[in-house]
Amino acid sequence: MLLKNSEGDSSVTPLPPAECKYLVWTSYNGLGNHILTLASAFLYSLLTGRVMLVDRGKDLTALFCEPFPDATWLVPTNFPVDFQVFESKNNQSYGNMLRYGKISIASSGVVTGPPLPFIYVHMTYRYDNNDKRFFCEPDQEFLVRMPWMVLKADNYFVPALFLNRMFEPELSRLFPDKETVFHHMSRYLFHPSDTVWGMITRYYQSYLSMGREKLGIQIRIFNKDESPLDLVADQAINCTLREGLLPPVALDRPIVSANLNNTKVVLIASLHSQFSDRIRNMYWEHPNKGGAVVSVHQPSHEEWQQTGSENHDLKAWAEIYLLSFADVLVTSTGSTFGYIAQGLAGIRPWILVRPYGGKMPEPACMRETSMDPCFHSPPWYDCKSCKSFSDPGKEISYVTHCRDVPDGIKLVGRTD
Ligand SMILES: *[C@@H]1O[C@H](CO)[C@@H](O)[C@H](O)[C@H]1NC(C)=O
Ligand SMILES: *[C@@H]1O[C@H](CO)[C@@H](O)[C@H](O)[C@H]1NC(C)=O
Ligand SMILES: *[C@@H]1O[C@H](CO)[C@@H](O)[C@H](O)[C@H]1NC(C)=O
């Protein structure tokens, strides 16, 4: 089989003959996006009978063990195609083939086009209406015939697969409990490498294992002007006190005898150290009313996100995994790290509402409706009329808008 490098380029690259059909996942954006899209691509491959291969990118092999014994999901390093060249402008993308009429949609809705050795599917948050047709039934009937599919995505797109009537019956059989989709897939697919597992277990044994109760707080600040660090620290304290996740301090008493049976460890994951300092000081300066022994730990504070830096990603992955050992989680609006931790843990977190204009949001936090991650940029697209603005959160009862990102959609347990 031959794979053209790009439209109009006469150089061609040999690909192995396709005995199976393949999906090649390519790495794009940060670690959180990688984990969410690997899971999405895996589920899609399962539904469409494809073997999934992983284009390893910079540090994937340093972070994860292979999920399947005696097999590899990695594209061989000597593979003749550079999958990183694919992006939105690429004319071998499904969306652009529709745009330029290489593939067409008949008035009957049937999708037709020439036999192609491979197709590129562009699914980043900046995808357009042509790209979004990926989620439509007639388009999937066409795409299933492509021997090779190359995918670039940055979102957890599973909820939109449930909106596809071809996939929905099988998905409902696989996952009777809808909100556990990512929970099962993440535990099945993502095994920390030995290096990361060493970091996880050493930290756990040193700082977390003695706590009878474990509270994980994950704080991500997207905009320091709208969400100043001091305000977010107040907010995290307000949320945890109000929801009874941390014990109230006894301002009127210098001493409360400690109840050594009641130990609480707080694990804080953040790029900044302010939050753990604040909470730690609060329980150092004052006793708490129940005499609980509260210890506060933060593995790292790197100050800024270093996407693609291997050492940073090792720590970030270890911290996500450590958070997943918590009994209760508080996470930040729209944070992929939070989504992965809550999915691995199998719990619904409290979400810190994103502050605007430097003001404390009211309420400071709210309970998430399900443990499954939010698909931030779902297709607001109507397959039948080929137009925008069909509300993807209103089609079936168990796919609703996310509380933290209202334009997004997510799977919830309710089926009534
Ligand atoms: C893709 O095809 C269109 C129409 O044929 C053309 O105008 C455009 O320049 C091509 N883009 C690239 C990146 O080759
Ligand atoms: C949390 O913030 C709200 C609104 O500002 C305030 O009314 C409430 O007393 C605060 N609660 C705590 C525990 O700080
Ligand atoms: C702590 O637990 C022990 C053993 O269960 C019990 O005897 C003791 O009364 C408990 N102490 C407190 C302060 O609850």
UniProtKB/TrEMBL annotation:
Note the InterPro entries from the entry. Answer: XG_FTase
Does Cell wall biogenesis/degradation count among this protein's keywords? yes
Q: Which UniProt keywords apply?
A: Cell wall biogenesis/degradation, Glycoprotein, Glycosyltransferase, Golgi apparatus, Transferase
Single GO MF annotation: galactoside 2-alpha-L-fucosyltransferase activity
For whether the record's keyword set contains Zinc, the answer is no
Localization, UniProt: Golgi apparatus, Golgi stack membrane
Main EC class the enzyme belongs to: transferase
GO terms, biological process: cell wall biogenesis; cell wall organization; xyloglucan biosynthetic process
**EC annotation from Swiss-Prot or TrEMBL:** 2.4.1.-
**Cellular component GO terms, alphabetically?**
Golgi cisterna membrane
Organism's domain of life? Eukaryota
Kindly list any coiled-coil regions of this protein. Answer: none
What is this entry's stated membrane topology? Single-pass type II membrane protein
Report the function annotation for this chain: May be involved in cell wall biosynthesis.
Give the family this protein belongs to, as stated in its UniProt record. Answer: Belongs to the glycosyltransferase 37 family.
Name of the featured protein: Fucosyltransferase
Q: Which organism is it from?
A: Spirodela intermedia
